[in-house]
Every structure is written in structure tokens, then in C-alpha cells.
Specification:
By secondary structure, the chain is α/β, with parallel strands linked by helices. It has helices at residues 17-26, 49-58, 76-81, 97-106, 152-166, 183-187, and strands at 3-7, 31-37, 62-68, 86-90, 110-115, 133-137, 171-175, 189-193, 200-207, 210-213, 215-217, 220-224, 232-242, 247-256, 267-271, 277-278. The radius of gyration is 20 Å and the shape is globular.
Length: 279
């Protein structure tokens, strides 16, 4: 499981945009998040192509552009061609969602789709197999500095289950109110799925000198941990037991990043597939 951090330029000092962009470019963050607001879809106006071009001029990071604008089809191609590697638009703002997705892909970028806190995950189902990323808002879009909505984690879990059950190849982004103080909450739920499928009977995780017993439902194990705090690499030893009492141990290495900067404290977090090696 890998954590990808995408600091939001909405938190930058725009009097020193070049300085702050170069600071991110030197950091361990893998992506840069660009929030574009039009004052119509959301009650705020942020920035557009000039800021995006200024960022791409000095940064080598993946540019992750989040459009909070009405009828995004009008601009998705321009944002892709202006240097965005990912262009994400809101389901609620597009009159033709599939057309937006196709336009982003045709422009050479990866397509993301986002939903507000009040929109159910089920609304995404017709499009998950067509997009490269789904962004779950953990605050109401439009303003920085809001408090994280814990209920958004339930939507992330539901979305993750949908993606894994149907075998989609899609990242999950959670955006809003995330800081170094609460980022680990997003990663506290670890999913372990063994080759045994529905015959999985039980498992436990050993990490950092602690042992955690997991719950098993439909062959999948879920566990709550408090070990993914701080920074650096941790190793998880996962012992899985099937219905024949055959045991296998899977060893996962997880890279954990902790961000504390005076300027950029608003981060977005992504989940990637974990790679485990069986003993």
C-alpha cells in the first residue's frame, strides 16, 4: 500500500508562488494538486491557466488538477494540454459525464471524477470503469481550511469494495481537511485478501512489535491499526489461516510520509494497490 501526497496550491503564498512550488518540487510529495474554482459551482474563485502554467514551468511533479466548475467539458481539453497529468471534474457539474471523460483521455491526460459529500457513491457506478481516479470530497468544495468529515471514510470503503469486487483499475483520492495530524486515519483500515478467497478463516497482523487480530467477512480481512503514524517504512507480517488450517505469511512494506510545513498543510491522499510476497 502506497501513500501518494498531493499538496494543494490553494494553501500556497501567492506572493511567493515560485518559492512554494519549488519547495514542493524538492519535497517527498509525489504530486501537486491544483484547485480550480469558478464562483458558480462553488462559492469561491481561485485560479486558472496562468497559475497552472507557472507551476508546470518549475515543477517536475505529477500535476493533479481538480475542476470545481460548471460544464467542465468547456475546459478539460485546455487543462490537459496546459500540463495537467490528471484532470478531475465533478459528477454534479457535468451534463454529459461520459463526454467529459472521453475528452480528457483524447487530450492525453488521465480522467478523474469527483463527488460532493452529499452525493452517494452509487452515483459513480456507471463511470468507475472508465476513469483513472475517483476523488471523494471530505469537505464541502469551495474553501480551504475546513474540518475533515469522518463520514467520508465510509464512502471510501464502499468505493474501494466496488473497485476491488469488479476488478477496476482506479485510484481513490480523498480531498479536504487532511493534515499531518489526521492523515493516518485514512490509512488505519488495512484490507488483506489472500489467495484462499472465501475459505479464509482468520488472520493477524504483526507490526512494530504489536499484534492485531482481524475480522473476516466473505473471505476478506479488515483490521484497525495505530502503526501507520510518523514517517518511514514499516513492515507488516500478515498471517492468514484458511479453512483447512493451512497458514501462509504475507510480508508487506508500507512507506509512510508525514508532512509538516508552515505553508502547505492541506494535502490529498491516494491509495494504491499493496504488493505482498507470500512465504
Amino acid at each position: 500500500m502506497e501513500r501518494i501526497i498531493s499538496p494543494s496550491m490553494l494553501s500556497a503564498d501567492f506572493g511567493n508562488l515560485d518559492r512554494d512550488t519549488r519547495m514542493i518540487d524538492r519535497s517527498a510529495a509525489q504530486w501537486i494538486h491544483i484547485d480550480v474554482m469558478d464562483g458558480v459551482f462553488v462559492p469561491n474563485i481561485s485560479f486558472g491557466f496562468p497559475v497552472l502554467k507557472a507551476v508546470t514551468k518549475v515543477s517536475t511533479k505529477v500535476i493533479d488538477t481538480h475542476l470545481m466548475i460548471v460544464e467542465p467539458i468547456r475546459y478539460v481539453e485546455q487543462f490537459a494540454k496546459a500540463g495537467s497529468h490528471y484532470v478531475t471534474f465533478h459528477l454534479e457539474a457535468a451534463s454529459d459525464v461520459k463526454q467529459c471523460i472521453d475528452a480528457i483521455h483524447n487530450a492525453g491526460a488521465k480522467a478523474g471524477i469527483s463527488i460532493k459529500p452529499a452525493t452517494p457513491v452509487s452515483a459513480l457506478e456507471p463511470y468507475i470503469d472508465s476513469v483513472d481516479m475517483v476523488l471523494i470530497m471530505s469537505v464541502e468544495p469551495g474553501f480551504g481550511g475546513q474540518s475533515f468529515m469522518p463520514a467520508s471514510l465510509d464512502k471510501v470503503r464502499a468505493l474501494r469494495k466496488e473497485i476491488e469486487d469488479k476488478g477496476y483499475n482506479c485510484l481513490i483520492e480523498i480531498d479536504g481537511g487532511i493534515s499531518a495530524k489526521n492523515a493516518k486515519v485514512v490509512f488505519d483500515a488495512l484490507l488483506v485478501e489472500t489467495k484462499y478467497g472465501a475459505s479464509l478463516k482468520g488472520f493477524r497482523v504483526e507490526c512494530e512489535g504489536k499484534t492485531y487480530n482481524g475480522d473476516v467477512v466473505d473471505g476478506k480481512g479488515t483490521i484497525e491499526t495505530d502503526v501507520l503514524a510518523g514517517s518511514g517504512k514499516v513492515t507488516l507480517n500478515v498471517s492468514a489461516i484458511d479453512s483447512r488450517d493451512i497458514k501462509a505469511t504475507y510480508r508487506f512494506t508500507v512507506t509512510v510520509y508525514e508532512y509538516k510545513t508552515p505553508v502547505l498543510n492541506n494535502i490529498s491522499v491516494y491509495r494504491c494497490e499493496e504488493n505482498g510476497n507470500a512465504d
